[in-house]
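Data card: per-record layout.
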Amino acid sequence: MLIFCTSWMGYLASHRLVVRRMFWEQYLQFINFVQTQIGYVAISPCQIVKNYHAKNEINIFLNCLKNELDFEGNFPRAWVNSVKKTKKELGLTEDDENVVLDFGEKLGSSDIRNQLKHCNMHIKFANDHLKEADCAKKEMSRLYLTLGAATGMGLSLLFM
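The structure for this 160-residue chain is written out next.
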């Protein structure tokens, strides 16, 4: 039982890295969609979010954002509340959280040209975070799994 519990803890830590990586991949697609919508359709951020249909990890965040928009009505405040509510579920680090917060807080607060620049800047940030999340997943995922199992076996031997 002890081996199972510590292995499960290792699996959960490893899974958090996988979820974080998938979030950044999907978040990058979302920013590209936002940029396209701003550039060609020129609609509000609220409408962009409602028009975007996603799957998997980012859907957790976007569903929360849609609910907050229905309740709050204010896009920047709804964005901040959604990030804070879903950051743990998505495995976001503090730096990840700050980047995502910055994007939503400033979206829709300037003219179209500056919003497109804002999107370009955040596409670069998202690419950097995606690379970092990918490296962390590759390096640390197996370590957490192995460490969980080894800790369980070590404690089992210790208690025998």
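Known properties of this structure: Residues 2-159 form one domain. The radius of gyration is 19 Å.

See the next section for split statistics.
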